[in-house]
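fyi for ur records
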Amino acid sequence: MRLLDLFLLLIFYNLVPLWTTFTGVPVGVRVMLTVVISAAYLVVLFRSERVPLKSFRMRSLKRGLSLTWLTGASILCEWVIIALYIVFSPRGAVAKTFSVVMPVLAVLLTFTVAIVRTAIGSKQMKLLDYVLLFIFWWMFPLNLVLLAHFFKKARREYWFEADKAELDNSRAENEICRTKYPIVMVHGIFFRDWQLFNYWGRVPAELKRNGAVVYYGKQQSARSVHDSAVELKATIMQVIEETGAEKVNIIAHSKGGLDSRYAISCLGMDKYVATLTTVNTPHMGCDMVDFLLGKVPEKISNGIAHKYDKIFGRLGDSRPDFMAGVRDLSAVRMRELNEEMPDSASVSYRSCMSVMKCFLSAGFPLCISYLIIKKLNGRNDGLVWEESAKHGRFRLVDTGHIRGVSHGDVIDLMRENIEDYDVREFYTGLVAELKSEGY
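which gave:
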């Protein structure tokens, strides 16, 4: 089908050279053929694709993928066709110029439709991908290099999502995440459980699709471990009352794991929590916090804290406390907290940790903090070092890829498909394991 589409595109692109070469064709026949060829060209641009999913987004992405390939192939062919026409055609300069202009404009139209349809369907393409293409689309052979990169990225996303949808469909009836107790997902510091922007990215929807009952911790963005734990306690009791369940399973990221441990050990929530799974949580604290608190002048740190508290106060926090939250992440403070909140024998503790492979594995500021922590402690995710994350049954998220998985990647913060790490499947596996163990 692509070869037929390419043939139709090339015929349309070269209507002017075609008619100036075959001058003996009657005008009426030319008009009729031009209309038919133009209609075929529009069909190539705007027809839909057959995909194994009932999804407008996936159909659009698949067609954008095909049109991107056609754009690259037609550019290669047009260079040859135009060169041959200019060299061997007896026509004058005006006709030859027009014969070049029309294919260029037609290729640009095809290229634009390809980009638009891909943009409608893609969630992985970055703004830079589009900007570079629109700036250099005319510059041969750089345009082919950029198109090849664009095509490869779009194709990877399409097949990634297609395989994911097929997997979901095959296990839909099994409800592998239908745990005995509801799931409470507890966020880390500097974030809130906003409705419009989910801290956990695509993960909650995937868990629900596979049968899980999901709630959120609803703590404020930055408070002390004690104060956040008090807020989490209220949420747990609300979930217990609403669902009628005896207990909950907690999945907590970063500081959320410390808030959860405090609620369990110090606020009586051990009676209502079956399992606690912490993800990239600094159970031994962050030595980088101690380092920065010792280096940054108090005036500057207090100024940052004041601005943060003011902004998040307007965003919905009733009593944000930047410095209290940060201090409780220090290694010194965590030694005290670990004494205050010993593990409960009635709760099953397990922990996970991902690591970056180099400072290029994440953007600013994690790339900088990664270097600091690597020098202080060793392997880390940009905020937490590996040994600090171990608590209870432990597993390391190691992709084997040069990029690794950062502190934000592990919760799907940027909604990015990472090679060798499907964040949705990672959490589906965690919850499926809870179900298999009777939780």
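The radius of gyration is 29 Å. thats all i got for now
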